[in-house]
Amino acid sequence: MNIIKRSTIVAATLAGIVAVAAAPASAIVGGQDATQTYTGMAAMSIFLPGEGTAKCGASLISPRFVLTAAHCVSEDAAAPTPVAVPAAHITVRIGSNDRTTGGQEATGERVFLHPDWMWGEDTGKPVSDLALVELAKPVWMPTMLLGAHVPGDAGPVRLIGWGLTAYPPADGTTIPVTLQQRDTTRLPASFCAGGFIGAGEMCVSGGACFGDSGGPALRQLSGSHLSRYPVVWSSVGIASRETNEDTPCGAPSVYTDITYEPFRMWILTTMIHPQVQPCTCPPRQAPAATSTTRMKQQFAPAIVR
User: Fold this and answer.
1) Tens of pLDDT, residues 238-280
2) Which of 56, 66, 75, 187 is most buried as measured by Cβ atoms within 10 A of its Cβ?
3) What domain range includes position 46?
4) 54 in a domain, yes or no?
5) pTM of the model as a whole
6) Would residue 35 count as lying in a domain?
7) In contact, 7 and 246? CB cutoff 8 Å
């Protein structure tokens, strides 16, 4: 059984314009401009030769590593085999709520896909939609904290990202320049049954859409908007996929639970002892010159030209 279904995103011919087929997605719908700067939040761009540039979210969790969704940095032409995109094709902008300017930019040096990531194929193991990108040079900026516990059912969760703010998008719609946020809640897993939720994942109420893939779900640690102390957040999840193809950006969403102990240990171990997981990689098949489509699974990145 293919748990994460691949769908089609159409790349428009005008720079910065997003055209989305009537298919699954990943963006903050029903949110607002970010009310603060979130330490470690990163806008990720993945250059896809002949197709455009995929847009995802990511989190700087150490000066040399960003955490994102595996499907953002995997070659879907090789699916279900887990083949990483060339790290040099990945650029991140960190420390700015504007995805086009400010903060610091860095490029990737190596990509580490979780060893159990198989494009959602039913392997009997967790979907494991997470990856680390090692940067070519350190970024000396505050990093995003990794949470130790997810909120309980009905507990508050904040989603942030630069994905679409409305679905379906009108003709000529662009992804937002300013970071968006939306306060949601954690839901019982049964609400995300349509997304084949499993171990190492959590269900949150709607809001994520095209372009939010790889971005974090946040839990507030301390402070409040009414106090003199700053609000401190930790990341507890990574946007993975939607649960309803008809209303992909309004239905509950599946997030990878990075507090899940096996995932947490893989993240820490990989940063301490970086090692590329071995795989038998088929040759990359370049898309036809006339093709404007890219196969994607639920919660695909937005693709722009």
Assistant:
1) 999 999 888 888 889 999 999 999 999 999 999 998 876 554 4
2) 56
3) 6-274
4) yes
5) 0.85
6) yes
7) no
CATH number of the domain within which 126 lies: 2.40.10.120
SS3 per residue for the chain:
CECCCEEEEEECCCCCCEECCCCCCCCCCCCEECCCCCCCEEEEEEEECCCEEEEEEEEEEECCEEEECHHHHECHHHCCCCCECCHHHEEEEECCCECCCCCEEEEEEEEEECCCCCCCECCCCCCCCCEEEEECCCCCCCCCEECCCCCCCCCEEEEEECCCCCCCCCCCCCCCCECEEEEEEEECHHHHHHHCCCCCEEEECCCCCCCCCCCEEEEEEECCCCCCCCCEEEEEEEEEEECCCCCCCCCCEEEEECCCHHHHHHHHHHHHCCCCCCCCCCCCCCCCCCCCEEEEECCCCEEEC
Structural domain count, the chain: 1
The answer to whether position 215 is within a domain reads yes
d(CA 126, CA 62): 25
Rounded to a whole number of angstroms, the CA Rg of the chain reads: 17
**What number is the average pLDDT over the span 18-25?**
35
- 273-290 pLDDT, tens digit each: 887 655 444 444 444 433
Q: Which pair of structure tokens corresponds to residue 30?
A: 């029903």
